[in-house]
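quick q for whoever's on today - can somebody do inverse folding on this one?? i tried earlier but teh output was garbage lol. tokens:
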């Protein structure tokens, strides 16, 4: 996707809603405001004041017809369509080896997933799906409709029935452990041109044979903990020219001070691993200064 950072805020403050549903999860697009029972620190936003990435409609395209299992631990499918000026969209331009990237996270920044559903001839995207816990989840879609305005990010909120407390954010840390790997982060997102460097080791030894995943050695998503402001970027360098580890570098700039949850996807030994970090940013630029920053990917 385009090499830019895209941050967006929805609702202001984490949304907490646990509603009942019949057959499918309850769905709320933020432009319409939260459903009965929702709480939000700043109330509902409309499409006009939602930043890019957290609208459910933009440039004539809409994330529509989402269905999902109604409750946690219920096997089913997550389905949706992208509709455009001429109806359901069935043709997409490839972005980093996929026609659409689906990123889902609960409102407390837990339960992160980055996956790639399948497209049917009628324009329906689908993927096998089970919610691990009740709560409000944000569903992000990154795609570029063929013949359309270019890359778009649309999203909606899905409410999974049941009651559950928010999971507290883990403490700020520059080190993450996942699947026997240790990933160390240096740098920050405080100013334009800031570099984040991630170093991957296993058993105390540097991993120097990272494998390409979606055309890169790493993918980074960062979410502002207070409202799920969103960025998705890819690393510096190029597969085949850049050393395949242990270091993976990104340029990133936060739109404001705050606590962020970072998710680094990398591939090694034939499997994709996700290292998660909590970080704090100070003296960050304003959102308007960061809207067109470039960072090497999505």
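ok took a stab at it. sequence:
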């Amino acid at each position: 996707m385009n090499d830019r950072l895209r941050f967006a805020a929805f609702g202001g403050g984490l949304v907490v809603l646990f509603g009942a549903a019949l057959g499918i999860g309850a769905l709320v697009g933020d432009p319409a405001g939260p459903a009965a029972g929702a709480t939000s620190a700043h109330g509902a936003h409309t499409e006009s004041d939602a930043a890019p990435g957290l609208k459910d409609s933009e440039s004539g395209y809409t994330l529509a017809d989402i269905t999902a299992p109604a409750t946690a631990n219920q096997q089913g499918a997550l389905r949706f369509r992208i509709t455009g000026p001429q109806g359901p969209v069935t043709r997409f331009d490839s972005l980093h080896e996929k026609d659409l990237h689906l990123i889902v996270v609960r409102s407390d920044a837990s339960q992160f997933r980055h996956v790639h559903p399948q497209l049917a001839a009628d324009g329906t995207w689908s993927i096998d799906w089970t919610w691990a816990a009740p709560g409000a989840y944000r569903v992000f879609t990154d795609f570029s409709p063929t013949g359309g305005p270019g890359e778009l990010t649309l999203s909606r909120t899905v409410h999974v029935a049941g009651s559950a407390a928010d999971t507290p954010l883990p403490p700020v840390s520059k080190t993450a452990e996942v699947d026997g790997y240790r990933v160390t982060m240096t740098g920050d997102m405080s100013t334009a041109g800031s570099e984040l460097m991630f170093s991957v080791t296993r058993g105390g030894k540097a991993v120097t044979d990272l494998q390409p995943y979606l055309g890169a050695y790493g993918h980074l998503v960062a979410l502002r903990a207070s409202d799920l402001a969103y960025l998705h970027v890819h690393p510096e360098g190029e597969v085949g020219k850049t050393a395949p580890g242990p270091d993976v570098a990104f340029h990133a700039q936060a739109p404001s001070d705050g606590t962020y949850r970072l998710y680094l996807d990398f591939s090694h030994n034939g499997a994709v691993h996700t290292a998660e970090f909590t970080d704090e940013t100070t003296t960050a630029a304003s959102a308007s200064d960061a809207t067109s920053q470039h960072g090497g990917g999505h």
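fwiw The first helix runs from residue 287 to 290. also Confidence is low (pLDDT under 50) at residues 1-49, 285-298. so keep that in mind when u check it
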